[in-house]
Amino acid sequence: MNGVPEFEFRTSSACKYDPNDRRCVEVATNVPGRVAVRSTVTGRTVEFMAVEWTDFLSGAKLGEFDLSA
Length: 69
Prior knowledge:
By secondary structure, the chain is of the alpha+beta class. The chain has a domain at about 20-60. It is built from one helix and four strands. The protein has one helix at about 50-60; strands spanning about 10, 25-30, 35-40, 45-50. The protein starts with 9 loop residues before the first strand and ends in an 8-residue tail after the last helix.
């Protein structure tokens, strides 16, 4: 055992399973100070510091990343 906790991923309840389109993201927040986001299609994982994730969510809720038509 190396003492480094592993990420425990969960899928958003907003993600509906469709056998023809399995695109979803999974998020892990169980490791203190870190957040990991993983693609269900590729398995690729991106890690963030907890403060970066909090800032991203705040910006998303304020519409900072909305695309204009």
